[in-house]
Specification:
Blueprint: H1 9-16, H2 23-39, H3 52-64, H4 69-76, H5 80-83, H6 88-106, H7 117-134, H8 137-151, H9 158-178, H10 182-196, H11 198-210, H12 212-232, E1 237-242, H13 246-255, E2 268-273, H14 276-289, E3 291-292, E4 298-299, E5 312-317, E6 323-330, H15 331-339, H16 341-344, H17 359-365, H18 367-378, H19 383-395, E7 399-402, E8 408-411, H20 417-424, H21 426-430, E9 432-437, E10 440-442, E11 454-458, H22 469-472, H23 476-511, H24 521-525, H25 536-544, H26 550-558, H27 568-576, E12 583-585, E13 590-593, E14 600-602, E15 614-618, E16 624-628, E17 641-642, E18 645-646, E19 655-664, H28 669-679, E20 683-691, E21 697-706, H29 709-720, E22 725-730
Parallel strand pairs: 2-6, 14-16
Antiparallel strand pairs: 1-2, 3-5, 4-5, 5-6, 7-8, 9-10, 9-11, 12-13, 13-18, 15-16, 15-17, 19-21, 19-22, 20-21
Function: In eubacteria ppGpp (guanosine 3'-diphosphate 5'-diphosphate) is a mediator of the stringent response that coordinates a variety of cellular activities in response to changes in nutritional abundance.
Organism: Massilicoli timonensis
Catalytic activity: GTP + ATP = guanosine 3'-diphosphate 5'-triphosphate + AMP
């Protein structure tokens, strides 16, 4: 993609006319420009340029990608609905339903209000990506829009520059990469790098420029040598050197912890030839003459990436000791490598009206887009959950495995056959009973590697997934499906419990000769608080599952004094008046005298563990909540408190506790913290660690699992000894 700094309307149309010739299509683009020019009249960008300059640039980028007339028109009009008070009906009447749908899909959510910026971005992106799953042209327009905005970012304030660059690097560049549009992806990354880390950007740019003359000479010499070799064997080819993008150099320096001088493939050569056979032929001749570096050969022709990228990659050592990365591909492969999905979407006019390539055909070739579309349809409305799934299962997917029929599935690192099964189909996952990898039976927790051929064994007699699978799977998609299965089961169990409760209550009322009107929902709701239940369904479920007796419910129905009418002192006395009653021990291991079937739970805010001093708080509708005595949420309470205690014969069990660790940031800090947790034989359910805004200190939030207070104190004492840790505190929500 040739980048021109100043493109006007004539240059746009010149580019368009290179591949679009039908007058009705040209007229659509001309009308779109005229309308955009009229509606944006008087609007200016931060640079001082008329706003219409931006839409021309977007249209030009789309024309360079060889998109169709509807797509270019939508690119020219992408801001008019939102920014220019154009009615939907007027727009549709002038440009048609198809162009309207494209424009509407890329329109920003400007007027919606969210709790915070993060939620806003997630919701905005969710709309864009779902639209993308329905029509990939949407993201081509959005990427073109973002590319020009990044090219003119110097006119924004520094804070705004960093915000836009960060968003682009996190979302738009990965999307461009996933779609295989390396031209846009590389430019976006370098522009983001320039604004997010200017010091490092210019340092690497200086180093590259400093060595440019020397490197160019080395590349030209190698090109001459390889050209002579291929001419000798009469192979058709194009050969040229390619420069490494600054951000890709920086990433390698960071991830591989190497100095600039140590990056192997700064010297790179690309060879374009006629067909696949010639690719392998050229590879053979090069390996025969130059020593290849072990482990650096990649065959993406036989095993294409999920974005359809194909090429042979090898790294060789020249006679002078210089190291070169060589890429070998066909003309078609090179086109797809540079323009990705856009190469398959190229507009071609024909006698039948020049329809653009149907979305369905794209999806057949780009399996991940089909999977993405499926996940977009199934995911909940929670924007943050959606973005998490997108980030984890799409952007970070870099393990490529195959079905027995050759379908390539992209999965996150560490993914298992269970993740694979759910990606194929939800029912395959639910009915899964085993798996084979490369022909051999493997455990379900086996991590998959790129190139593995995976086959799933299913059975209609399967009871569904195990809860243990939630600890094994790595993809958000599989985890959500398994959770949904158990949630559905729970709903069905509750429905059956409610039905059984209604049946038992009806039978008992009939047996006692009482009117069935006692079963009316309003009568049941009148006693919910007094029995520490929230609703009619809760009481019926409790009857059906024998949590409460039918007799106690009928007794309360016939002669009840509403619990919510009692004052706080009466409530306390009700619980404590019967000294002779046996203590009730809850599932939490708490014993309380005289409360019958009252629900007892540990308070989530302070997470008490055996050994902590505790107190009970009587809630309305949720039973007794057990807090630590020093919990700030009840420390000022004088009413509704009852004495509770840990049971003497408490069985061994696990308790969750949230910890907050403050420290100075350093390498391997989190690794050292996790190691201590393991050495102390504590569980780790969640960890979130981030560097603070000062860039020096770090905050780590952890949810650990301990046996009791002594176990927790030992863990905290050992965590406090970790190098650079300043404090370890129990969190109270």
């Amino acid at each position: 993609m040739v980048r021109k700094t100043a493109v006007g309307y004539p240059e746009l149309m010149e580019e368009v006319r290179q591949y679009i010739h039908k007058e009705e299509n040209i007229k659509l683009i001309e009308d779109a420009y005229a309308f955009a020019h009229e509606k944006h009249e008087g609007q200016f960008r931060k640079s001082g340029e008329p706003y219409v300059v931006h839409v021309i640039q977007v249209g030009y980028i789309l024309a360079q990608l060889r998109t169709g007339p509807q797509t270019i028109a939508a690119g020219l009009l992408h801001d008019v609905i939102e920014d220019c008070s154009v009615s939907d009906d007027d727009f549709k009447q002038r440009f048609g339903e198809e162009v309207y749908r494209l424009v509407e899909a890329v329109t920003k959510i400007g007027n919606l209000k969210f709790k915070d910026e993060k939620e806003y971005l997630a919701s905005n992106h969710r709309k864009i990506f779902i639209a993308m799953a329905q029509d990939v042209r949407v993201i081509l327009i959005k990427l073109s829009d973002r590319l020009h905005n990044m090219r003119t970012l110097q006119y924004m304030k520094e804070e705004k520059q960093k915000k836009i660059a960060s968003e682009t690097l996190e979302v738009y560049a990965p999307i461009a990469h996933r779609l295989g549009i390396s031209e846009i992806k590389n430019e976006l990354e370098d522009l983001c790098f320039q604004y997010l880390n200017p010091e490092k950007y210019y340092e690497i740019a200086h180093l590259v420029e400093k060595r440019k003359t020397e490197r160019d000479e080395q590349v030209h010499q190698m090109i001459d040598e390889i050209s002579a070799l291929l001419d000798e064997h009469h192979i058709a080819y194009r050969i040229f050197g390619r420069s490494k993008h600054l951000y890709s150099i920086y990433k390698k320096m960071v991830t591989k912890k190497k100095r600039f001088e140590e990056i192997l493939d700064l010297l790179a050569i690309r060879i374009i030839t006629s067909d696949e056979t010639a690719c392998y032929e050229i590879l053979g001749y090069i390996h025969a003459k130059y020593r290849p570096i072990p482990g650096r050969f990649k065959d993406y022709i036989a095993m294409p990436k999920v974005n359809m990228y194909q090429s042979l990659h090898t790294t060789i050592v020249a006679e002078e000791g210089n190291i070169f990365e060589v890429q070998i591909r066909t003309e078609k492969m090179d086109e797809i490598a540079e323009q990705g999905i856009a190469a398959h979407w190229r507009y071609k006019e024909n006698r039948n009206g020049g329809k653009e390539v149907p979305q369905k055909e794209i999806e057949e070739q780009l399996h991940w887009l089909r999977d993405f579309s499926l996940m977009s349809d199934e995911v909940s409305d929670d924007a943050m959950e959606y973005m998490n799934l997108l980030q984890k299962d799409i952007f970070e997917a870099n393990v490529y495995v195959m079905s027995p029929k050759g379908r390539v599935i992209a999965l996150p690192n560490g993914a298992t056959p269970i993740d694979f099964a759910y990606r194929i189909h939800t029912e395959i996952g639910h009915k899964m009973i085993g798996a084979t990898v490369n022909g051999g039976i493997v455990p379900l927790n086996t991590p998959l590697k790129t190139g593995d051929v995976v086959s799933i064994r299913t059975s209609n007699q399967s009871n569904g997934p195990s809860e243990d699978w939630l600890k094994i799977v790595k993809s958000s998609h599989a985890r959500n499906k398994i959770r949904a299965f158990f949630a559905k089961q729970e709903v069905e169990r509750k429905k059956e419990g409610i039905r059984k409760g209604e049946e038992l209550l009806g039978e008992e009322l009939k047996k006692r000769g009482l009117d069935v009107s006692f079963m009316e929902e309003k009568r049941i709701n009148a006693i919910t608080n007094s029995m520490s239940f929230a609703s009619y369904d809760d009481i019926m479920y409790a009857i059906g599952t024998k949590i409460v007796s039918v007799s106690s419910v009928i007794e309360r129905l016939t002669k009840h004094k509403q619990f919510n009418q009692l004052d706080n002192q009466e409530m306390i006395e009700m619980f404590n008046r019967q000294e002779g009653r046996k203590k009730t021990i809850s599932r939490s291991g708490i014993s309380v005298a005289g409360i019958g079937s009252m629900k007892i739970t540990l308070a989530a805010c302070c997470s008490p563990v055996p050994g902590d001093e505790i107190i009970g708080y009587i809630t309305k509708g949720q039973g007794v909540k057990v807090h630590r005595k020093d919990c700030p949420n009840i420390i000022n309470e004088t009413k509704r408190l009852i004495e509770v205690e840990w049971d003497d014969d408490l069985e061994s069990r696990n308790y969750e506790v949230k910890l907050l660790i403050k420290s100075n940031d350093r390498n391997y800090l989190l690794s050292d913290i996790v190691t201590i947790v393991s050495q102390c034989k504590a569980g780790l359910n969640h960890v979130d660690s981030k560097v603070n805004e000062d860039g020096v200190t770090a905050t780590t939030k952890m949810t650990v699992v301990v046996n009791d207070a002594q176990h927790l104190r030992t863990l905290i004492a050992n965590l406090s000894k970790v190098n650079s840790v300043k404090s370890v505190e129990r969190v109270v929500l």
